[in-house]
Write a structure and sequence with these properties.
The protein is built from seven helices and six strands. It is of the alpha/beta class. The protein has one domain. It has a six-stranded mixed beta sheet with strand order 1-2-3-6-5-4.
Amino acid sequence: MYAAVTCPRTMPGMETTPSERPLPRYDRTLTAAGVRKEWSESLSDAGTHGQHLLITRYRKPIAVLVPLSWYSQSKEAITAPEPRLVASEKARDTAAELFTDVGEHDAHIVIAVGAHQVAALLPVGWHTEAQRTRADAAADHAPDAEQDNPAAN
């Protein structure tokens, strides 16, 4: 299952800057060719099992395949362009072009299997920013350790 990235709590006045925050973690890293070969399994891992899959081309991260539910929630926290809807079969057949659109042109692609939208193919930078924004929001809403432990007062 996907583990959320959290930023370490700091003392007042010692906040972390974005460059000091931990980078996102991915459940798996696959090459673009590997994703094309294992298209159904990759969609299942993201859409059904909730995994975030980093896709690389020539060892360079180019896209992230994520569950649609995660993408939908993230769009509420961070601005996103209007996604393009692509059927799974077409996405598999045109994967190279889609990876280029996402990696070089920051396109957001929603992939549908039949009538059901299951996953999103996203730029790595947008995914990273969304994870950090969500982690910061979760940390802002987390109770302080002192409130949780009355003996510490």
